[in-house]
Every structure is written in C-alpha cells, then in structure tokens.
Amino acid sequence: MGENEIDAIFEQINKLKKPASGSEITSANNANSALGDMLNGVSAEIQRVLDDNKLTQEDLCKITGMSQSNISKILNGKVAPRLDTLQKIAASTNTKLVVSFEKIGGDE
Q: What is the CATH code for 28-99?
C-alpha cells in the first residue's frame, strides 16, 4: 500500500462523524426527558377526561373510531398523539383541547 493510499484512508477516517460530546448527549437526554414529561402530561389529561366522564378505553374506542391499541399506546405514553387525534378525543368527550406554552423555570 502506497503513501497516497494511506493518506486517503486517514482522510476518510477523519471525515467520519465523531461521537457526540458529553454536552451533546446531555442536551439530547434533556430533550428526551422533556418529551417524556409532555407525553406523561397528555396521557394524564386524557385519563382524567375518561375518569371525569366515567369512560373506559373501550368506550373511547367506540366514540372516536380509534383502535384500542392506539389509545392504549397514547395512554401509556408510548406514542405522541397528533393534534387532530387529540381534537377527536376532545370532541368525543365534550371537552375543549387547549395547547399552551409556558415559560420554564421562573416567575418572570
């Protein structure tokens, strides 16, 4: 193997994506944690609506036309429901869907 070939190999190696730094990993973990918190909040709200209306998952399936599997995944925080799905659940349970943004970490 000639020197030019070795240089070409090292150049290709240097172009490979480097592993994420500690701060990049922390940032990704924080984003995943925030998403998990949001999904848990959505799941809890849907469960509250079901409880308030004395509805089961099966009842929700019937009135929304959604599959039990999809509703179960939403309630267990395994999937992020689309806004139209949340609106369908809200309309079917005589509730209003409200989406809000709140400032994090301060009373400002």
A: 1.10.260.40
